[in-house]
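Re: the multi-chain job from yesterday

Posting the exact lines I submitted so nobody has to dig through the queue logs.
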Amino acid sequence: MEFQINKKAKNLIYGLIGSGLLLSIIGVITGMGDAHFKTRLMTNGLINGFFFFALGLGALFFLALAYATETGWYASVKRVIEAVAGFIPTGIAIFAFVLLVITFMDGAHIYLWMDPETVANDEIIQGKAVYLNKPFFWFRTLVYFAVYIIFLNGFKKRSLEEDRIGGTELHFKNYKKGATFLVFFAVFSSTSSWDWLMSIDVHWFSTLFGWYTFAGMWCSTMVILVMTTLYLKKQGYLEKVNDSHIHDLGKWTFATSFLWSYLWFSQFMLIWYANIGEEVTYYVMRIENFKFLYFAMFIINFAFPMLILMSRDAKRNAGILTFVGLIILSGHWLDVYIMVSAGSLGANAKIGALEVGMAMIAAGIFIAVILKNLTKAPLTPVNHPFLDESIHHEI
Amino acid sequence: MTDKVIYVMYDDDQVLKDGAMKLVSKGIKISEVFSPFAIHGIDPIIGIKNTRLGIMAFLYGLTGLTLATVGMRFFMVTDWPINVGGKPNFTYLQNILAFIPVTFEFTVLCAAHGMAITYLLRNKTLPGMPAQNPDPRTTDDKFVIEIRLSENSMKEADLDLLLNETGYIELDKKNID
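And the result, structure tokens for all chains:
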């Protein structure tokens, strides 16, 4: 059965984008006089540009992981993963536009290393100039984007081809390409998070940062996958998906929440224990300006999924999964919000109409693109070699 | 009280599953199934309740968490305070971060060992215990269904007829006292 966007979903999308626009305009009017307004605007662009692009990227990673490990159970939800990964081109367009504007604004007080005046007076940044400079930054960014899009298009093309032709030849090709993507992604997930997020706090560095960002991204993606699957199921689609698939997706949400918490804590504890001035500034800034949000975010993203999603029944209950999912998703958005704003705005950061509005616009676009992608292909792949296994999936 | 046990052997788990489904639909109670590996989906067919091992794991985990917290507070704060690079500075709460890795490890240790020991005890398969399975081949590549006549109202002859339809490879009957 082909998926069709119903009226309710359209209303939700228009509602999100419309009220988002309204809130943003209110935010722009009330905040315009502020000295930090430009930085605040670009900070929001960067937060939402990165966060929603990363949701798509997480799905692409998950798809490649499933191919490389020859996973069987996921075959009946594969089209959902592909649809979420299909947000990448749109996500890249928005994110690249934001990065371009920031570059032309000489960093807009977000990327201090882009501002020639700051660099001239800062020895530490000068030392990093070989890596952190505009041309090389854009070279890397474009390479990341190009690789992601090439692999995404390949996976999508072969997935539809498999529906027509069948056989195992395409499967083994996907297997190789999936493994190749993971090799690229292993490097890019770290370096791209350094480039886009860690370089905001330009004096500071952490080798764990890439994994920490990646784990947050993966967890948010799993939430999106669970919620999209549940939504489609509720609308009467995906009749091949049973409780066990939902349970498995729920387990992924639970497990990646732990992965994220583990990495967050590892980074925090090591820096807290060593207590070296250059390193602790990162946390001092966050605790001074975002004390409540920072620790509330950690509790939301760690204790919440741990306590609620621990039991088997909870992971099979659509209501609980959606409720926890929405809260974790906002928790991870907050995580990205603090990652970016603590370095760019610091004490001047606040969550007002502009922040909420811009996030709502981005979420509206994200939902619209995903639902559009879902209409483009049959919701259950026809000739996937593991489809039979997936239909009989039972845990 | 004497009882008669029937062991029905299969050489494929899927055949066993189909056979078990057929038997249960005729109202026969299967008391046990022996298999070299877990057969997915057999539990609801033969009426085994969901395992409670998960609940025990949680309780063992809580025990580990408590023991680690109480222990470290006593060792590191009350009994012999040690100052390592300014931490811990004689209060547990302020330095809770330093204690979390150990707490975590001890929680996992207690949960894992508790679960393993409970599992072995419950199945009576602790090292050195006599084997419970009726035929050593069920640890290799054969699958056995155990039916007790005392638990079924059906006559033995009728039962044999039913079993013939399930495609077993061997049938063994044993009288026990």
